[in-house]
Amino acid sequence: MVIDSVPVVSTMMLFPSSRVLLLGAILFLFSATFETNAFVVTPCLRSNQRSQLFSTTTDTETTVSSPPQYDTFSWDLRTPSGHYQNVRIHYRISGNPNGPPILLLHGFGANLEHFRYQYPVLEDTNHYKIYSMDFLGFGQSEQPPNAAEIGFSIELFVQQVVAFLNHVNEDQPWTLIGNSIGGLVSLGTSAYQTKRPSQCPNFSISSIVLFNTSGGMSGFRYQDLPVWAHGVMGVLQYGVLKQPDNLGKYFYNLFSNRDTVQALLGNVYPNATNVDDELLDMMLEPAARPYAKDVFLAVFGGPPGPSAEDFLKDIRDIPILCLWGTDDLFTPAFDGGRPGYKLAQFCDSLRFQAIDKAGHCLHDEVPHIVNDYMMDFLQERRGESIRSMNDTLAVAAI
């Protein structure tokens, strides 16, 4: 089977040799990739073909899109000890107030501004109501001082999304779009809806778009590691990351340094054109807040949690577009023990598309390519929704 890919110019980023070891550590931690054995590739329509999909204008298109607005909502999260703790979650909303809702979910170390190149494209259509949200501890969401006691996990982030979707209470089905951990949480939320519908009274999910997906919240999935690595990873997890006032503080300071972050991004982005001051400021500004270190160590050293395969087994009949950069060093598309291209074995409705020479944050690295595939998929789904609505009205009129 031939896999369609899109050529992208690759730029080699050089960085000081003193950071090679640091880069190796982060690559080792985030090598939690995927293990399945089948894939599906369905070509998407290019941008000049999109207009052929629709001949129907809906009422939502006559509404003027709203400019971006930022707000917060209060979430009573439940800690592992069984206590409830109220936290403040930051989110963004824009687009057509009457349109079908979309929620964008960012990855580790990022925030909702990481979708800087997706907002204009989605908003310009005047079709969609666009939400995005900072995960707890990230961006402008609250950074709890007791991060080590919160129990940061993929399951916690899924609970956050479920609470948010119930809170906003949209009357149309959602599309979830996520990068890295955000992609994994998107799958987890859909699986949660399937397994616990009574806890999802105010929302339904109709489709998902993945911009690469992490194998877990962290790389500490010991059963996937060679035996010799267990001791090394144990020292890192419990001797460094679980010691916030000792080695953990030193470890965090390395990652909150602008030069180090730029060097790492040069490897996350094979094409480094968009590794600019705006991106660096976006990543580093939340790191200057008082409890950023505690959140970073709690998430980085936390459990890997469920994998994408675990969630996909519980997802039925929800179309999923899975875009994956072929040069992703963190979660490889075709190499390693769990290559991303095999995810479709676990879900018949998952469509895999490789993006040649793009990395882990391909939505920000090559947005012109990613946005084409994303918009084709969304408009295809919207076309089916309009046709279904018209069919229902026709039947009702008989």
General description of the model:
It is built from 13 helices and 8 strands. Helix 5 links the parallel strand 5 and strand 6 (205-213). It is of the alpha/beta class and 398 residues long. The protein has helices at 20-29, 119-124, 147-150, 154-168, 181-195, 227-241, 247-255, 258-268, 277-284, 292-300, 308-312, 362-365, 367-397, and strands spanning 66-78, 84-95, 101-105, 129-133, 174-180, 205-213, 320-325, 350-355. It has a single domain (17-384), classed as Alpha/Beta hydrolase fold, catalytic domain (Rossmann fold, 3-Layer(aba) Sandwich), CATH 3.40.50.1820. It is globular, with a radius of gyration of 21 Å. Mean pLDDT is 81; it is low at 1-58 and 392-396. The relative contact order is 0.19.
Summary?
This protein has helices at 20-29, 119-124, 147-150, 154-168, 181-195, 227-241, 247-255, 258-268, 277-284, 292-300, 308-312, 362-365, 367-397; strands at residues 66-78, 84-95, 101-105, 129-133, 174-180, 205-213, 320-325, 350-355. It is an alpha/beta fold.
